[in-house]
């Protein structure tokens, strides 16, 4: 059975979004936002790791390039109950690059290997790597192959590969989501050359039809922003590939309301709780009205969970 996951995304896959997506699918692997190893070591780690790890299939993504700090971050992730720790070697953000982590590390495979080994030596859960197919003009297949081979020798066995190379200069991260074109065949070629490794395809997967068409020659697929523009896609994946009961959109909202009440009582901003479900009725009749109603009313002084019930009436 193929593995399916939702990508780690800054300002998207926070603990509220992960809780909400778990209501939609019980089997898809979810990832946290990227958290730097330094923030975990020096900062408020209890707050940063405040995800509901009682949910199955939850992974922690970390960023950094210092083996000792990353080893400590991995230990914290395991102690907090995460099933996996993933090292970010794919983000093209200038802020990330200036901190010497993310996609720029693909140009330093030996350093990444040292980081992976240090992380693995301290934990029993899997250490995985998320990377690109290339960086800037360093985009030959041989360089990618050498990068993967170096990490395999260090003990890494699972790679999530975004099938678009990263541009660290000349393009914004937003532009880099569309330019240059995706190249799924490169990811499949890596699987052919490293058959004992688990290779997960990431990038541009937006519909169940496309997922079914591209689901070959790899071990799994990772969904990115489609999980927010159309979160019910996760229910379609659950139904097609895992089976079991899938709840209706209205049932998912009803199940989410007690969580919202609890979080509001703890002082959580209402807008953070509404954000994950804005796309729930994507391409459904009156779905745009559902999204608009929540967006326009979330900041009113009287905002509360009754907004959900009122929004549901627009699509019932």
Report on this model:
The chain has an 8-stranded parallel beta barrel, surrounded by 4 helices. The two termini are 35 Å apart. The chain has helices at 15-24, 37-42, 45-48, 67-79, 94-98, 109-122, 141-153, 184-193, 208-214, 226-229, 233-242, 249-265, 270-274, 287-297, 306-315, and strands at 3-6, 29-36, 58-63, 84-89, 127-132, 158-162, 198-202, 220-223. The protein is an alpha/beta fold and 316 residues long. It has 15 helices and 8 strands. β1 (3-6), α1 and β2 form a beta-alpha-beta unit. Helix content is 44%, strand content 14%.
Report, as a whole number of angstroms, the end-to-end distance: 35 Å
β content, as a range? 5-15%
Structural class: alpha/beta
Number of strands: 8
The rough form would be described as globular
With helices defined by DSSP (H or I, 4 residues minimum), what is the helix count?
15
- Low-pLDDT windows of residues: none
Describe this protein with a few key phrases.
single chain, 316 residues, alpha/beta, eight-stranded parallel barrel, 15 helices, 44% helix, globular
SSE order and pairing:
Layout: E1 3-6, H1 15-24, E2 29-36, H2 37-42, H3 45-48, E3 58-63, H4 67-79, E4 84-89, H5 94-98, H6 109-122, E5 127-132, H7 141-153, E6 158-162, H8 184-193, E7 198-202, H9 208-214, E8 220-223, H10 226-229, H11 233-242, H12 249-265, H13 270-274, H14 287-297, H15 306-315
Parallel strand pairs: 1-2, 1-8, 2-3, 3-4, 4-5, 5-6, 6-7, 7-8
């Amino acid at each position: 059975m193929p593995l399916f996951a939702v990508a780690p995304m800054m300002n998207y896959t926070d603990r509220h979004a992960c809780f909400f997506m778990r209501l939609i699918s019980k089997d898809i692997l979810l990832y946290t936002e990227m958290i730097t190893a330094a923030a975990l070591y020096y900062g408020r780690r209890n707050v940063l790791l405040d995800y509901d790890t009682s949910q199955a299939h939850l992974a922690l993504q970390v960023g950094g390039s210092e083996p000792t700090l990353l080893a400590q971050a991995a230990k914290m992730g395991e102690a907090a109950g995460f099933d996996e720790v993933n090292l970010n070697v794919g983000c093209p953000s200038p802020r990330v690059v200036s901190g010497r982590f993310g996609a720029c590390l693909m140009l330093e495979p030996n350093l990444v290997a040292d980081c992976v080994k240090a992380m693995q030596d301290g934990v029993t859960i899997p250490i995985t790597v998320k990377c690109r197919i290339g960086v800037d003009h360093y985009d030959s297949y041989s360089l990618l192959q050498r990068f993967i081979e170096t990490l395999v020798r260090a003990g890494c066995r699972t790679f999530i590969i975004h099938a678009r190379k990263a541009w660290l200069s000349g393009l914004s991260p937003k532009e880099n989501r569309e330019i240059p074109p995706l190249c799924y065949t490169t990811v499949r070629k890596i699987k052919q050359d490293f058959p004992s490794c688990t290779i997960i395809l990431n990038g541009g997967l937006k519909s169940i039809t496309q997922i079914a068409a591209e689901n070959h020659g790899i071990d799994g697929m990772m969904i990115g922003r489609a999980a927010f523009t159309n979160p019910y896609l996760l229910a379609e994946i659950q139904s097609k590939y895992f089976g079991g009961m899938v709840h209706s959109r209205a049932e998912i909202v009803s199940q989410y309301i007690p969580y919202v009440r609890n979080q509001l009582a703890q002082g959580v901003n209402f807008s953070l709780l509404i954000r994950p479900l804005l796309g729930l009725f994507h391409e459904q009749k009156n779905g745009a009205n559902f999204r608009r109603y929540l967006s326009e009313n979330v900041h009113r002084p009287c905002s509360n969970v009754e907004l959900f019930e009122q929004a549901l009436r627009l699509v019932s």
